[in-house]
Amino acid sequence: MLQFAPGSRVVIRDEEWLVRRIDPSTDGGHLLTCDGVSELVKGREGLFLTQMEGDIPVLDPKTTELIPDDSDRFDKSFLYLEAKLRRSTPNDDKIHLGNRAVMDVNPYQLDPALQALRQPRQRILIADAVGLGKTLEAGILATELIQRGRGRRILVITQKSMLTQFQKEFWSRFTIPLVRLDSLGLQRVRNNIPSNHNPFNHYDRTIISVDTLKTNLEYRNYLENAWWDIIIIDECHNVAARAGEDSLSSRARLARLLARRSDTLILLSATPHDGSARSFASLMALLDPTAISNPEDYTPEDFRDKGLVIRRFKKDIKDQVKDDFKERITQRPSRNASREEEAAFEALLAIPFTQGGSHQSGKKQELQRVAMQKGLFSSPAAALDSTNRRIAILSAAQEQSKDEADEIAALEIFRKKLLAITPDKFSRYGQLVDLLKSAASKWDPSRPDDRVVIFSERLETLRWLNDNLPAALGLQAEKVVVLDGSMSDTEQQRIVDCFGRKEDPIRVLLCSDVASEGLNLHFFCHRLVHFDLPWSLMVFQQRNGRVDRYGQKHQPIISYLYTETTVEKIKGDFRILEILQEKDEQATINLGDPASFLNVHDPEKEAQKVAEAMASGAGPEAFGKKMDEAQAKLESGAAESEGDDWLLQLCGSPVATPVPAAPDSLNHIVAAKSLFGFNNASSDYRFMKTALNLLNSEPGKSIQFTAEDSSESLSLTAPLDLKERLRSVLPLEVRETQGRYHFSARRDDVQANIARAREQRQEEDTWPDLHYLWPQHPVMEWISDRVLAHFGRLKAPVITSSVLPAGTHAYLVMGLIPNKKGQPLLVDWQAVVFDGKGYKLEPLMAFLEQNGLKASTLPNPGRVPALEPLKTALPGAIDAMKAHVVAQQAVFNSDMQDRLASHLANLKKLQGRQVDQLELRLSQSNQAEGYKSSLRERKTTQITKVFDEYRQWVEDTLTIEPSPFIEVLAVVTRP
Question: How far is CA 44 from each of CA 11, 34, 724, 777, rounded to the nearest angstrom?
Fold first, then answer.
């Protein structure tokens, strides 16, 4: 049984410590994370195992020493009270701080946090469409969990090109520091920590790419031995099980391992499944392994009431976003193919492709032709690369059949036709140049805020454009840059960062589809060109989302380049791609998810399906008819009932399940109450300034800072203990070498600074240098620690106020009840008022407001009050508070026990279903009985382990400790 809770003052090794966090340890006890309070350990953090320390005395509140506050306007007392209030951990399902992040919050962005907070543990897939701001939604939820004491250790896993962007968003918007472990960051780690130490234990909050973890066995092993409060997996579709694959990929195995290393798991993806039940079930199993019995056969009822998924499209939230989403402008210029291109088309159709040394007409040959055609539809350079590789493969054979020789001859003819397509004969390239140079486009490359993103699927096309486009547009070579997946993680991040920097010379970014997932390319760019049309609706969606997204300040201009040809077969295949583009546009406006048309929900499978449509010979009319039928079903809602779209069926269609109205989310925001101001920004600034002044008043102490009341901003030179703290938590990019930090409590000023940071010169970085002064900033946490440690062991300040009746004392007391994990479940703040006859309890904030007890408003007359009457009445006040908390505890515990019993009963039922499903599969198997017996034993053990772990977690979370923690914060009496 725990005798202490977060906020308790304990004595360990003859020094006083403030318990900041309690975690279960593998030895059956608990790990205490503490801040030093007594002089020898002040400013230091300590980690203690209760099993090793033995008896840890908790300071008895009845023996609290009462200290008259001699500070001006009782600053010491109000700072101490405010610091305690700021450490209060909410245990409801409301929004307490996330809405105050550096962003223009729209109601829909609060919904994922609200949905997750209603669950017993916060595990959710945020599957909003491209561009809606899933990173920000994850930041809001992470902020709320940090406020609840459940977010000290955070791990983010994302794509290597996204590391810096995600890290910067979490810091600049939420002041959540993530140490970036890219290839350069890993080297820094090796240099800064002892060898063989686990870097994931050394740094509490880190971000790393899934590719690094997949390939670096050393760091993957480190990861397996670390525990996290929150794990966020970005673009989580990359770690889902794939349809048709018997075994899990290394990424999927890694995700499964991580899912068991954290209480909270946040998955992010705009494309959260590949159309198969198994793929989506694998993500649900990461969130809750007890939810789905059979991943091949399940219904929405298996998990819908668990709140594991939230998904919205742009059309669903357009009434909430006002000007944050601009309506896109779509351009579809076309140009006739040149004579040389027409000749290449004819030569391609004439190639007698072979398989196994022979030429056979039919689907296989047509698919080979379509594969080669895909390169040609990108560029002659891409087709030439494919042709050369095909010729090399056929020529390398020791013996060639006549059919193979005929294919080589045809390929050589095709190769010559491709070489004849010079830049001036490449119609789509000329079309691109004319589009960008035309007066109608109004593109001005001299303006640093008017940039262009050009997408192509093929790397050879990007390189060809990089070689030819600068001269054609009259640009210096440095103004046209390629971004592709072959680059290192640091190089990809550098290019993305440069493109988002206003003073960088880049004007045209040539992107492969590695840039189509997640990247923010919209800061100084609203023009996007599809140099080649994708063969996947999902790729259309991902590409366009780079500039058509939340926060875009201009109307996005999306351009698709079309080629007109007289070669009928090629013309029909081009038309199929045009139909894809049209359906993407219709889905964006009316439906939401364009992937529902082809119903495979995987870019590669969509491209394969398009290729098969081209190879079938059915033509664009038949393809268009099928797409129209799919659209009609989606618009009518029939797809949901017929199972044509797994996500519609499993998660609920927005057509059938309307998104909550905007005011509903806003009504779940809890306004913070403070002793230092009537609005949040003012209270944060005044608290910080008053605390710094108080610390400077201590003998021998000097903290250099300046404050500006008119702008609610201040600058601070970090003292030694703060430098040490920031060195271990802040990313290197935001650490000031001179230790001078600048803060503003005004969100608009910080947002403006973020925008200005993007206007830095080429050699500078784009990290903002103005920090957001709010409760979550590490410096604000440091100042709270310093204030809380200001009073000695088991001491509380005494405030005098003439408002109180004569002979009345008010004891300001906190009561806290934790669960078995040490997390606060019930926190109550009361003023225990003693009038000489008895004790009466009043809610703390109501008492303070009623009696005008606000910071900087109460003059200190300097007269020491009589302390003996206060000491005499103190034990009775503690008893009264304890009785009050115990009474609340009884009611609260009854509710918790009902919830616990319900959860345990549900787990028992779910476990039985999984065992039944196992038996059903075994009964239908033709395998040997001995093998089935072994498999039954192994699978039953796995099921039992999963449910036992979850059952233990539920019991530890919902079982409250019987002994409440009581602390005297201050005493108010009449002078």
Answer: 15, 8, 9, 18
Q: Which residues contact 514 (CB under 8 A, 6 or more apart)?
A: 161, 483, 484, 485, 492
* Model confidence pLDDT, tens digit, residues 289-323: 887 776 766 766 667 677 888 988 887 787 787 66
Return the half-sphere exposure (C-beta side, CA atoms, 13 A cut-off) of residue 674: 22
DSSP symbol at 263 = E
The residue type at 497? D
Supply 237's token pair.
Answer: 């579709």
Report the percent of the chain where pLDDT is more than 90.
40
Q: Can you tell me the distance from the alpha carbon of 351 to that of 417, in angstroms, rounded to the nearest whole number? A: 13
Work out the pLDDT band at 775, boundaries 50, 70, 90: very high
Q: At what angle do helices 603-616 and 537-544 cross, to 10 degrees?
A: 130
Mind listing the domains of the chain with CATH numbers? Answer: 1-59 (2.30.30), 102-312+660-666 (3.40.50.10810), 339-422 (no CATH), 680-774 (no CATH), 795-975 (no CATH)
Angle between the 459-473 and 363-378 helix axes, to the nearest 10 degrees?
30
Q: Where are the beta strands (DSSP E) in 484-556?
A: 508-511, 525-530
Closest CA to 739 of 752, 721, 758: 721
User: Alpha-carbon distance 280 to 236, whole Å?
Assistant: 11
**Euclidean distance between CA atoms 240 and 256, whole angstroms:** 9
Q: Are 409 and 545 in contact (CB under 8 A)?
A: no
**Chain centre distance of CA 742:** 26
Pair 158, 214: CB distance under 8 Å: no
Residues sharing a CB contact under 8 Å with residue 479, sequence separation 6 or more, in sequence order: 445, 470, 505, 506, 507, 508
**Cα–Cα–Cα angle for 233, 236, 239, rounded to 5 degrees:** 105
SS3 label, residue 900: helix
Would you say 181 and 202 are in contact if contact means Cβ atoms under 8 Å apart? no
In 3D space, the residue among 741, 677, 746 whose CA is nearest the CA of residue 710 turns out to be 746
User: Tokens 């944050």, residue?
Assistant: 324
- Secondary-structure percent of the chain, ordered helix, strand, coil, rounded to 5: 50, 15, 35
What's the CA gap between 950 and 948, in Å, rounded? 5
The identity of residue 942, as a single letter, is Q
Distance, in Å, from the CA atom of 231 to the CA atom of 336, rounded to the nearest integer, reads 52
Say what the pLDDT of residue 975 is: 83
DSSP code string of 624-646: HHHHHHHHHHHHHTHHHHHTS-H
Q: What is the pTM of this model?
A: 0.82
CA distance 706 to 704: 7
**Distances from the Cα of 859 to the Cα of 39, 49, 79, 835, angstroms:** 30, 45, 15, 23
Q: How many CB atoms lie within 10 A of CB 367?
A: 18
Asked if residues 131 and 548 have their Cβ atoms less than 8 Å apart, the reply is yes
The structure tokens listed for 694 are 């108080």
Structure tokens, 210: 């899934």
* Number of H-type helices and E-type strands within the chain: 33, 29
Nearest Cα to 577, choosing from 534, 539, 541?
Answer: 534
Condensed to tens digits (0 to 9), the pLDDT of residues 145-166 reads 999 888 988 999 998 888 888 9
Beta bridge partners of 810: 833, 972
Rounded to the nearest 5 degrees, what angle is found at the Cα of 38, between the Cα atoms of 34 and 44?
45
Alpha-carbon distance 236 to 255, whole Å?
Answer: 9
DSSP 861: -
pLDDT for 867-917, tens place per residue? 999 999 999 999 999 999 988 888 877 877 887 788 788 778 878 888 887
In the DSSP assignment, the letter for residue 448 is T
Q: How many CA atoms lie within 13 A of 291 on its CB side?
A: 26
Spatial distance between the Cα atoms of 423 and 260, rounded to a whole number of angstroms:
55
Q: How far apart are CA 30 and CA 23, in angstroms?
A: 5
Nearest-5° Cα angle at 428, 425 to 429: 70
